[in-house]
């Protein structure tokens, strides 16, 4: 098997120039527990850490021993603060974050009008890309707070379980383009300025949209655009600032996967996109890998099991036969994982990697989370 350079997460955590670690990957690969384990390890190594998760199953709160997590960072008790570190945790509330952005940058009257608008209510709760964008808004807020009061010197982000590896990186651009786009401005002032010459064509298109979407929806969008007009530029500016922050030497990305085809395919997309965008990549964490201390191949184990089963007193060997067959199954799993990881490393030999053994049970407390972090 081809071995890439080992990913040294201890060195990543220890580097005081690193202020933001972003854990990304497909859903179900252990991003949340990886983020939490990294945060705990960093805090106990002396970093003042905050971890932001997007975890509707609330696994992070459970593993950290916190009764609940919400949109406000809350301290985690029970960690070793001997090295001077601390740990806060929070879970993104997408709509609350969007509401906070509106309240912060609009007058109270405009904010009330926006909050009551049906189009905004749909946008802030279910529009594709909103969760990813609000994760970036929250990251920007945390970064600004860390700069202003020094409460944290490390921010760890557990990214949303996107449908595609590209959603998270593209969300700031997509939603800012929507909110700052020509379509909404056209709805707002269709017969003014540069749009005057297009008014006849626009009125034709507008009438067609009313028939397809309904007059009330178009009215809601126009009302939203009018109320939101003063915030258009702010979303564009913050999107640009977020992308700058992601590409700075203060940030690093950790891609998380499992030794499964779909997860490694998604990890490949992430690695390629990060490389193409010149975003800083520390490496790949492969969770739930398997190994064996017995150097007996699957074929050999099955042959031994068949020999024992063929004995006249085979009943006395039932336990040994079952153990050998289980070992054969495990060795086949290990061989399969090695083939998949070898395929990844062959195509991306420069990506540092660490393999994390599969745990016998779920991560449900600080002690288990600490053991997980120590295996990185």
TrEMBL record:
Residues 18-289 form the ArsA/GET3 Anion-transporting ATPase-like domain. InterPro entries: ArsA/GET3_ATPase-like, ATPase_ArsA/GET3, P-loop_NTPase. GO terms for molecular function: ATP binding; ATP hydrolysis activity. Gene3D superfamilies: P-loop containing nucleotide triphosphate hydrolases. SUPFAM superfamilies: P-loop containing nucleoside triphosphate hydrolases. The lineage of its organism: Bacteria, Bacillati, Actinomycetota, Actinomycetes, Propionibacteriales. Transmembrane segments: none annotated. This is Anion-transporting ATPase, ArsA/GET3 family.
């Amino acid at each position: 098997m081809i071995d890439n350079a080992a990913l040294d997460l201890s060195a990543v955590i220890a580097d005081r120039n690193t202020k933001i670690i972003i854990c990304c990957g497909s859903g179900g690969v252990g991003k949340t527990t990886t983020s939490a384990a990294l945060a705990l390890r960093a805090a106990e190594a002396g970093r003042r850490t905050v971890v932001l998760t997007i975890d509707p199953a609330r696994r992070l709160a459970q593993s950290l021993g916190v009764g609940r997590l919400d949109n406000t960072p809350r301290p985690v008790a029970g960690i070793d603060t001997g090295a001077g570190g601390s740990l806060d945790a929070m879970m993104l509330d997408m709509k609350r974050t969007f509401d906070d952005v509106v309240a912060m940058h609009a007058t109270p009257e405009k904010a009330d009008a926006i909050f009551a608008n049906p189009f905004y209510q749909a946008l802030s709760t279910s529009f594709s890309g909103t969760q990813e964008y609000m994760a970036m808004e929250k990251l920007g807020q945390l970064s600004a707070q860390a700069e202003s009061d020094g409460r944290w010197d490390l921010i760890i982000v557990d990214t949303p379980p996107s449908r595609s590896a590209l959603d998270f990186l593209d969300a700031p651009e997509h939603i800012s383009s929507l909110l700052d786009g020509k379509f909404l401005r056209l709805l707002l002032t269709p017969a003014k300025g540069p749009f005057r010459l297009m008014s006849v064509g626009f009125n034709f298109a507008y009438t067609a949209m009313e028939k397809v979407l309904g007059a009330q929806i178009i009215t809601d969008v126009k009302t939203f655009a009018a109320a939101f007009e003063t915030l258009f530029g702010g979303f564009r500016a913050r999107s640009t600032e977020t992308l700058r922050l992601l590409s700075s030497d203060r940030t690093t990305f950790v891609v998380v996967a499992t030794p499964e085809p779909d997860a490694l395919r998604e990890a490949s997309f992430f690695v390629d996109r990060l490389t193409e965008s010149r975003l800083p990549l520390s490496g790949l964490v492969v969770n739930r890998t398997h190994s064996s201390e017995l150097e007996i191949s699957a074929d050999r184990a099955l042959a031994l099991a068949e020999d024992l089963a063929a004995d006249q007193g085979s009943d006395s060997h039932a336990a040994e036969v079952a153990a050998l067959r289980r070992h054969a199954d495990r060795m086949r799993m290990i061989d399969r994982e090695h083939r998949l990881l070898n395929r990844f490393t062959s195509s991306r030999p420069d990506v540092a990697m660490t393999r994390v053994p599969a745990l016998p049970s779920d991560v449900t407390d600080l002690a288990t989370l600490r053991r997980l972090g120590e295996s990185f």
